[in-house]
Design a protein that fits this description.
Layout lengths: L1 H21 L3 E2 L5 E2 L12 E5 L5 E6 L4 H9 L4 E9 L12 E10 L3 H16 L17 E4 H9 L10 H4 L14 H17 L4 E8 L8 E2 L2 E9 L2 E8 L4 H17 L9 H9 L4 E7 H8 L25
Parallel strand pairs: 1-5, 7-8
Antiparallel strand pairs: 2-4, 3-4, 5-6, 6-12, 8-10, 9-10, 10-11, 11-12
Helix pairs in contact: 1-3, 2-8, 7-8
Length: 330
């Protein structure tokens, strides 16, 4: 029954808190209602208004991640921080592994090396796995040694292609590779996104735990660019993405430039255009030491640990959410 799964969800969350407590992390809380919900090109957000006592309305959003406020906490002197809380993404699927509202675990540590952060992430996953009784665990898929691949290595291994960032011929080069979703006239961004979903994730299904790292610079988001690659990684378990991590880009000018570029691309897509988070820029301007950060989907991790095929029994009240028409079910 779902209630038993909820109990295990609680145990896993408690174990995660213990993992970070043992490592002297500070648990913090940040706003859910924000002026800037995120800086991604392809995400969409929930918008509303706050009306003050004079009747003036102020546009606000539900956060897609606590990232911008957590980095402000780093600027205030915190060295190791984490939080678990609700996040929201609009215009997406309500499907086996997707939900408009979900629980995010996000954590940051100053001074940790990128490769060390990958290992720490896997230690967290294993710790969560062992926190519940053996009869509730799925196979040992989550605790096997991860296969670590760069994006370029994945293109070569799965497609036999020498990858080049912003390659205008990428879609043409993928013709004949049995990727039926890719059209010859797809631009680079579209073709790259389709490869991730239709090729890489399909191959990852049979590979246990996979770490995909060193994304092309064009996909840096707010991660550091070193040479021709962005220092970010994602963990996949059985083909399901569970986290997205960065060696954080902390230069205020560079962060503002990237968000302005993201807004330009959003405008081209007729997507919403949230305002800048000027407090975030000011925090970066005051100085933040080099750090890494990770965002992990708690609902997906719990489902994978408990051997579920979707989020239905691990995300409380999923079937009674406001957007559902079902009269009953938890």
């Amino acid at each position: 029954m779902s209630f038993e799964k909820w109990k295990k969800r609680s145990e896993i969350k408690a174990a995660i808190r213990g993992f970070f407590s043992d490592r002297k992390y500070l648990e913090i809380d940040t706003p859910v209602l924000v002026t800037c919900p995120g800086t991604e090109v392809f995400l969409e957000y929930f918008k509303t208004d706050w009306q003050d006592f004079t009747g003036v309305q102020h546009p606000v959003w539900l956060r897609s991640s606590p990232e911008l406020h957590m980095k402000q906490a780093l600027a205030k002197g915190c060295d190791r921080i984490y939080q678990m809380g609700p996040c929201f993404r609009n215009h997406g699927e309500f499907a086996d592994w997707h939900s408009p509202e979900f629980t995010m675990l996000e954590w940051y540590e100053k001074g940790i090396e990128f490769d060390e952060f990958i290992l720490q992430t896997h230690e967290l996953i294993k710790h969560a796995f062992y926190s519940v009784a053996s009869e509730f665990r799925t196979s040992k898929l989550l605790i096997g040694d991860p296969k670590i691949l760069s994006v370029s290595e994945a293109f070569k291994e799965f497609l036999g292609i020498e990858f080049q960032d912003q390659d205008p011929e990428l879609a043409k080069k993928l013709q004949g590779k049995k990727l039926h979703s890719i059209n010859e006239d797809d631009d680079f961004e579209t073709a790259f996104s389709k490869v991730l979903i239709d090729c890489f994730e399909k191959n990852f299904e049979r590979m246990g735990v996979v770490v995909l790292k060193d994304y092309p610079a064009s996909q840096a988001a707010l991660s550091v660019i070193e040479g021709e690659v962005s220092k970010r990684f994602e963990f996949y378990v059985g083909g399901i993405e569970i986290c997205n991590a960065f060696k954080e880009a902390l230069d205020p000018i560079e962060n503002r430039k990237r968000y302005e570029e993201a807004l330009k691309k959003r405008a081209e897509r007729n997507a919403s255009l949230p305002d800048h988070d000027f407090a975030f820029y000011a925090a970066l301007d005051s100085g933040v030491e080099a750090c890494c950060g990770n965002a992990l989907g708690i609902d997906r991790l719990v489902a994978l640990i408990l051997g579920e095929k979707n989020l239905d029994r691990v995300q409380p009240f999923r079937k009674r959410a406001p957007f559902s028409k079902e009269p009953f079910g938890i």
